[in-house]
From TrEMBL:
Range of residues in the leader sequence: 1-19
Coiled coil: none
InterPro entries referenced in this protein's UniProt entry, alphabetically: ARM-like, ARM-type_fold
Domain of life of the source: Eukaryota
Family label: Belongs to the importin alpha family.
SUPFAM superfamilies: ARM repeat
Lineage of the organism: Eukaryota, Sar, Alveolata, Dinophyceae, Suessiales
Residue ranges of the TM segments: none
Name recorded for this polypeptide: Importin subunit alpha
Keywords: Protein transport, Signal, Transport
Amino acid sequence: MAWQILISILFLLIIRADGGPLAYGLCQSGCNALAVACYAAAGSTFGTVTAGLGTPAAILACNVGGDADGSFRDGLLDADIVNVLGQLFAEMPDFTWTSPERCEVLRSFTWLMASLCRGMQSPMLEKVDAAFDFFPQVLLGTTDAEMLSNATWGLCYLLQGAEEDSEGCRRAVRILTAGFQGEEVPTPHPLLQQVVRCMRMVGDWRCPLPSAALRLAGMLVHLSDSSFTDALLAAGLLGALHADLVDSYAPVQVRRDAAWVLANVAAGSLAQAQSLAEQPGLVEALCDQGPTEVRQECTWAILNLLKHGPDMFVRMGVHRVVCILTNALQADTEPALQRSAMEHLELLMQKLQTPEAGGLVGKLQGLCHSSDGAILQKARFLLQNFFPWQGMPDDDMSNNLSRSG
């Protein structure tokens, strides 16, 4: 009940507050109650530790809630921080706020809520259950980038706390049905549309939104229930991922994460892979590659598309596919990607009488000296069966000749 009060009053303040100086005297008792609970959870006494004159108790609570090992966080939850927050917010309609003051307090409490949900050891779900309702309302109720980012990370922490895929699916359903109890969930889903909008804000590298939104989308796509990917696609996921991937001003990590999500979409159902392949310009963007970290994830996306059958080879163009697979055999590529690329090369060359092999033979010859036995054997197999003698490394040729003699 306390969190229902918190949620409703939080956004009532955003919508209804009419400005004026912060009524510090009116809120002092509520803030003191919050601070006492925070310091008690940390094993200290309120009043013996200071953080600067006028520092809001909410900021202190955020610092306690964000500890590394979760002990302070669990102390806050055990000290019934939820009810304390509810009591504080119950008094807030009587306060007079300026917009900056209101925004600062709400940012602090959204950050605190996210901190209460994170940690190497996830909190007990019943202690933070109300966060499943709180974070979606933040995402749909504000345009403040910091609050949006913290709320999105909070949802990531809730999903991350699931120990099994089935539990992750249940938590995702809980998130996407928040606010729709007894009602049909609309398509496209408004929460996922907001997540997709947050992905597109990559022009300023300092903006915290794309990283959080990409992480949340990636976690949903990675779940075994394909309906979450379908819901994201309906919300415009592919267009946002395409924009992130080709944005030269975006951090490399953002572009890499976008390619990673695309690789997971490509590994989904045939219909999902076809949606990706049919998105205007997206396959071309994946083929353009980029920095090493981005290139490898783009290549995984292409390989996952190819797993859906020969039609994908034709759709993307055989010459383009051969070039991508050849590039995937470079020395700095991860072994799993090299193995997958060679498997697709074998399939492709079985269908072609004269495979185009510009640079391919040299890379296969180099892989014949790989320390990975599977890669070495596959490279030799391809050379012997599709480029006989022409493609055998010199040492292998001499060994064969000596044995025949």
